[in-house]
Amino acid sequence: MTELTVGRATQEPADRSAEVVRRARGRAVGVLVDAYGTGNFLPAAFNRLGVDVIHVQSSAEPISRMQPWDRDAYLDWLVYSPDGSTERVLKEIDPRFVLPGQEPGVLLADRLSEALDVRSNGTTFSAARRDKHKMIETVAAAGLRTARQLLTDDAEEAVAWAEAHAYWPCVAKPLASASTDGVTVCRSADELRAACRAVLGTTTVFNGANTEVLVQSYLEGTEYIVDTVSVDGHAFVCGVWQYEKRLLPNGKPIYNRDILVPSDTLVAQALIAYTRTVLDALRIHHGPAHTELIVTDGGPALVEVGARVNGHLHPAFHDTAIGVNSADLTALAYLRPEEFLARYGDGVYARRQPAVVYNAPTTLSGTVVSVDQALVEEIRERPSVVDLVVKRAPGDPIVPTHDLLTSPLRVFMTHPDPVTLELDYVFVERVRESLFEVRPTAPRAACGLV
């Protein structure tokens, strides 16, 4: 993927504001905040319904570890200023909507949408939609099943808590990150100490400082995704996916496949019912949400929720397998809410055919010298492959996969015949390490894009 340079947007905020107002005058416009990663699919969805989009970047510098937002997809762009000037500019252009493109934009999008009096989830529960500790506390207060948890900046306090309640194994993770960044399953006091040290004093994938670590009781069971898009609290469920994960010897869970679940199964129905209650508890009444849950022996329990589209969103892939995609649904929800409610409100998707998203791991370490393009095309030509994303290019570092960021290849596969789908997965799994020629170097941190 080509990285776009957007940092220059910070140099001339006054000129930028005037240009935004000039270009937006007389147009129907909306605002996306931090549309990194799969947020890049949203501008085209709004454009198809006749609305141009302005991008607002919440931080002075772009988030380097996420796929950049595409400047060419927008009518114009701003870097947020806390002095109130951004709100003044947006009020002048009178946007139809303000929503986050990805996780780091949730808090600012809530604030801006509320200030501009457009459709908004509001700021009252904003923190609970980003801070994982507050999120679980809010959902537990609504009477829903969740993990037990402790928020601390002291590894010894974490160990004492786990020992006192016999919470082995337990999970240590950052308070507000994503993509299994910093998530470790700990089976002993020493492992928990090491996991806390690995989080504290570092930064998240969103460049936020980790000053505390969240420790939770381990939820035993299978993990799932429930994706939704809502209008006025009426959520359409646009996908239930089962996570197939692998646990590394160091206790870190890594994604392998996301497997589409038929919506009429008992497990999907239980997950959907639980998720609707979670959305109500967190006041996610408008727009997309990506909810991760584990089905325990006692039923579904929340892992976390993101008030944004799925990180594996691929509209053409989802349209083929599900018949809908959350980018187009989100645009419809904000621009034609009555039509959305009539067609989708409180509804559930029907799986058209089996589908998986494969996040291929690697054991390679070094610098990528070349990518085997002939093999890339061979994968692309497999019957079930809709698309693939090669996340490392010549000159990039590559390290053994330890989270979603360090998976160097993502493949979107769907086919009416499940046997064909499985055979294609087995083929890609077999050849994945042959994609990259690597020059070994000393181990170093990866700069993955999601």
Walk me through what this model shows.
The chain has 450 residues and is an alpha+beta fold. The protein has four domains: 7-120, Rossmann fold, CATH 3.40.50; 148-217, Dna Ligase, domain 1 (2-Layer Sandwich), CATH 3.30.1490; 219-352, ATP-grasp fold, B domain (D-amino Acid Aminotransferase, Chain A, domain 1); 357-450, Alpha-Beta Complex (Aldehyde Oxidoreductase, domain 3), CATH 3.90.1170. The protein is 30% helix and 25% strand. The chain has 14 helices and 19 strands. The strands form four sheets. Strands 13-12-9-10-11-14-18-16 form an eight-stranded antiparallel sheet, with helices on both faces. The protein has a four-stranded parallel sheet with strand order 3-2-1-4, with helices on both faces. A four-stranded antiparallel sheet has the order 5-8-6-7, sandwiched between helices. A hairpin with a 2-residue loop joins strand 12 and strand 13. Helix 7 runs antiparallel to helix 8.
Brief digest:
This protein is α+β, with helices and mostly antiparallel strands. The protein folds into 4 domains: 7-120, Rossmann fold, CATH 3.40.50.720; 148-217, ATP-grasp fold, A domain (Dna Ligase, domain 1, 2-Layer Sandwich); 219-352, D-amino Acid Aminotransferase, Chain A, domain 1, CATH 3.30.470.20; 357-450, Aldehyde Oxidoreductase, domain 3 (Alpha-Beta Complex), CATH 3.90.1170. It is built from 14 helices and 19 strands.
User: Which sheet architecture does the biggest sheet show?
Assistant: 8 strands, antiparallel
Please give the number of β-strands.
19
**The CATH topology of the largest domain, please?**
D-amino Acid Aminotransferase, Chain A, domain 1
Strand content: 25-35%
Estimated structural class? alpha+beta
Corresponding CATH architecture of the largest domain: 2-Layer Sandwich
Any idea how many domains?
A: 4
Mean pLDDT: 91
| Helix count from the secondary structure assignment | 14
User: What is the CATH class of the largest domain?
Assistant: Alpha Beta
Rg, Å, rounded? 22 Å
